[in-house]
Amino acid sequence: MSLKAVPKARVAMCVAAAALVVAVAAALVVVVVLVTSSGRASASSGESSAQCNTGHLVVCAAAIIGGAAPSASCCENQRAQQGYFCPYARNPAYRRYIDSPTAHRAIAACQVAVPSC
Predict the structure, then answer these.
(1) Stated pTM of the model
(2) Could you tell me the CA-to-CA distances from 33 to 36, 38, 42, 58 in Å, in that order?
(3) CA atoms of 46 and 111, how far apart (whole Å)
């Protein structure tokens, strides 16, 4: 590898890393928007937000979307929301977050039963 190729390789690596960061950030924004709008919808429909609340799963975004190890608070919130995974999986807005391989890994890492809906 010549010395001229090294800077190009580093630039390419930096561009790829930046693209990944942007993609993860965009996915987190989508999750926050969905959770925020869902919280408003459930509050207006009379649902108890203390029971079924997708907002509690925002702490799991890095694990569900990015494949990071789930935090203790993520696992705690997964256990609290476990009974609602199937309704979330039936909702087109959340389906891909519950059914994704990274979500299944995060759920399994927290020793929560992976739903079969």
Answers:
(1) 0.56
(2) 5, 8, 14, 10
(3) 31
